[in-house]
Write a structure and sequence with these properties.
Layout lengths: L8 H23 L2 H6 L1 E8 L4 E3 H9 L6 E6 L3 E5 L2 E16 L2 E18 L2 E18 L10 H4 L7 H9 L14 H19 L5
Parallel strand pairs: 1-7
Antiparallel strand pairs: 1-2, 3-5, 4-5, 5-6, 6-7
């Protein structure tokens, strides 16, 4: 298949609907529209992030309760979408911006990552079936110029470079981040994730259901 070939109108419409849902879910989360966010997830969905792993419904409730701490906003790049029948995969570049505090100092934590989102269409409606995170890099800095942020270098060294400062921040809030998230620093963990997404799409193409 030529990836540059113009898609069929039905596929183009489905791709638009999928991209709109991926963007909408994060928008509703940031606005605190929990009802709309919950409707974005399939009943058998699963979400895995640095601070959470569980069902889509559980993820909505954890987000509502402010599980990771701080005030967080998501800046999304356009999604790259592949549709096969009633299934779709979307990969989306994301900047996750969190304002929080360390040792009484206000800080901005910025995480660059990609969301790999699997979606299925039931009754003509797209919903999210699975979300996985691929970590790229992160950074942390004081909000106020001139303030000095002190961090334990030995503790920092325990964490992987693709989400080091996020891991440090989560650990300070009592959350133990998983050491095996897919990331650009661990392509061996990314390859199986992408392959599983391709296999999942192929199952729809082969008539194995949605």
């Amino acid at each position: 298949m030529n990836p540059l070939a113009p898609p069929a109108p039905a596929t183009l419409l489905a791709s638009y609907e999928v991209a709109a849902l991926v963007a909408g879910e994060r928008h509703w989360r940031d606005r605190g529209d929990w009802e709309s966010m919950a409707q974005a997830y399939h009943g058998e969905s699963w979400v895995r992030l640095a601070w959470f792993e569980g069902t889509g419904a559980e993820f909505v409730e954890a987000s509502r309760s402010g599980g990771r701490g701080g005030t967080t906003r998501h800046r999304l790049s356009p999604s790259v979408v592949c549709v096969r029948g009633g299934r779709a995969v979307a990969e989306t570049g994301v900047l996750v911006e969190t304002r929080t505090a360390h040792s009484g100092i206000a800080v901005d934590l910025t995480v660059a990552c990609r969301y790999l989102t699997l979606l299925r269409r039931d009754g003509g409606i797209w919903r999210i079936s699975r979300v996985e995170t691929i970590c790229e890099r992160d950074a942390i800095a004081p909000v106020m110029p001139g303030e000095v942020l002190e961090m334990d270098p030995q503790r920092l060294a325990r964490y992987r470079p693709s989400y080091r400062f996020l891991s440090y921040s989560l650990s300070c809030n009592g959350i133990d981040p998983p050491p095996d998230l897919p990331g650009d620093d661990r392509p061996d963990l990314c390859a199986p994730l992408y392959q599983a997404a391709e296999d999942w799409l192929a199952a729809a193409s082969n008539g194995s259901g949605v």
